[in-house]
Design brief:
The chain has 468 residues and is of the alpha/beta class. The protein is built from 10 helices and 22 strands. It folds into 2 domains: 139 residues, Immunoglobulin-like, CATH 2.60.40.1180; 302 residues, Glycosidases (TIM Barrel, Alpha-Beta Barrel). The strands form 4 sheets. An 8-stranded parallel beta barrel has the order 3-4-7-8-9-10-11-12, surrounded by 4 helices. β15 and β16 form a beta hairpin. The longest helix is centred in the middle third of the chain and has 18 residues. It is globular, with a radius of gyration of 22 Å. This is Beta-glucuronidase C-terminal domain-containing protein.
Length: 468
Amino acid sequence: MRKVYLALLFLFLIVSCKKDARVNMPLTKDGIPVTVKLEQNKPGNSISPQFEGLSYETQLLINSPNYLNVNNTSLIQMLKSLGPGILRIGGNTSDEIAWQGTERTPLTPANTLTTSDVDKLAAFADVTGWKVLFGLNLGNNDVGAAVDEAAYVAGRLKNNLYLLQFGNEPDVFHLYNHRSPVYNYDGFKADWEAYYNAVIMRLPGAPLAGPDVAYNGDWIRWFAQDESSHVKLFSGHHYNCGPASKADINYKTILAPNYIFPNFLQTLSASAAKYNIPFRISECNSVYGGGKPGVSNVFAASLWALDMMWQVAESNAEGVNFHGGNGLFYSPISTENGKVGPVYYAMLAFKYGSKNGVIIPTTLITTQEVNCKTYASANTDNSYSVTLINKGEKDILFTLALSRNASTAKEERLSAPAITSADGISFSNSTVSANGTFTPSSTENISISNKSFTVTVKGSSAAVVTIR
């Protein structure tokens, strides 16, 4: 959850942007005019049905045994409201906690994972239907303990085991004193292969992922070249900026275009395509170091997260896992009071805006500089969905130009009282109830004429439009 780099900010648009100097498009009473062309006849990659996910520290299983627990019915419902997903257990503490293959007792040492902890996790996975991406301790370099842990985890999770990983952010192991300052990829490769050989001997065919790096694209390329025949998934992390202690980070920081992330996605995507192995952003969030108040826990984080998920989806990724836990401002679901945060509402908007469909290219045309993003998908129910994200302060009047006939369009809004609001966030004019249920309650009908219609998206908000 901590990173060693500072993201540079630079203008970058996922959508294809064009400016037509021959057309005068002044600000109207409805907002800045922007045209979005949908290339419905050019479908792209499919969106994974288990795209969305959450990430937690291994320590959470020990310190908060009632959280990922079958008795936490509201959390179970919150996960079900998102649909199928991946629950990742790992983080920094996965390389600090020792495995003890016995039940937990009052005499169990601190920072020790037991069979009791894994049993509770397995029961939780059963009732949610979410599969588990489980991180083993590579930090202490105890191969024997890792093999025993892997065997128990696989035996208890059974079909709910998504994948096993060795270590968390090994490219920065030296910062946590897991390895010496000269530790490099070659050292990691030797460590990883020692774990691999031992685990496979005990668990032939064990599903594995890696390298789960913090940021190092070279390690991803090298790992893909060396270990592609041994893994089922490439994984890496992303935090938009940080550390949280940095004074000049504010909500505008995460709404500004990020220059580094597209390059990281390209590295993962290229390796995935070359070796025909999917990739996943297995840990991510807005500001590393636990998130920042006024940034990570306000509505700006909803718009950031929604945009980030679509960027990852367009890169043909398997999905994302938003990190959360005790005392973290960016948690999608609070471990302290069970309330959902801004990122969770973004996850809902993505669910309803993607519908496990197929990516449809969009082209954005405007004569003015606007901070907006547009994404679209063709859905299995023969509908089309368009997500319109307005990160700027001014309203935008989107004109959607279709390439196919349509008869109806409905709009659902992701909104809040203000961009800095921590409360009052809603999607489709609905909020998540205390028991975890979510039911969209408000859609706005839109008239379509000659394959075209307009939608006004208020400043600092987003909308999901479903077209039939």
